[in-house]
Amino acid sequence: MQGHRSTLLAVCLALGACAGELREPETTVPMPTAVAAAAPTSCEPAPAAAPSRHERRRRERGPSDGNFVFSHFSAGVFSTIIIQPATYFIATRVGETGHGLGPAVGALVLGAFLPPILNYTVQWAVGRAVAPGRDRFWPGFLVNQVSHLGIFIGAVVGGADFRNIGHATAIVLGEAFLNSGLATMTAELTRRPRPTPATATTEVIVPVLEFKF
C-alpha cells in the first residue's frame, strides 16, 4: 500500500507540471491613453471690430437736431428773399453812377460778396439762438459764398439783367433754396462735438444723534 501511494503521488506531480507548461501565458493589454486633449471651446463672443475714425467722429458729434436744421434753413431762405434784391439794387445803382470802370467793378464786388455775408450771418444767428455753440460759422459761410459766386458769375456771363423782375426773381429764388440748403447741410455735418454730460453724484447725509444720560 505504501508503494502505490508513492506512485500515485508521483503521477499527480507529473500531471500538475504538464498542466503548468500547457497553460498559455496571460498577456496584458495596455489601456489606450489620450494623446492630445480636445481643443477648448469658448462661448465668449468675438471682440467687435474697433470703429473707424469717421464713425467715432460721428458719435462724438451726437445725433442730428431737426429743429436746428429747419430753423437754419428757413432763416437762410427768407433772408435771401429779402436781402438779395436789396443788395442787387444797391449794386446796380453803384454801377450806374460815375464814369469809367470804377463803378462797374464796385457793383460786381458788391454783388459777388455782400449777399453771402448778410445771408449767412442771419442763418448762423438763428441757428445759434436755437442751439447755442452747435455749428461753426466758417464752413457754412464758405459753402454759401462759393455757391453764390458760381450762380452770380454764370448770370453775369449769361447776360442776365438784374433790373429785370423775371431774371432777378429766378436768380433770387434759386439762391434762396440752393445756397441755404448747402449751407445748412454743411453746418450740420461739421457741427461741434456735443459736451460730455457731467456724472451726477448723490450725496447722502446721515444724521448722528447723541444721547446723554
From TrEMBL:
PROSITE patterns: PROKAR_LIPOPROTEIN. Residues 37-51 have a biased composition (Low complexity). Residues 37-64 are annotated as: Disordered. This is Lipoprotein.
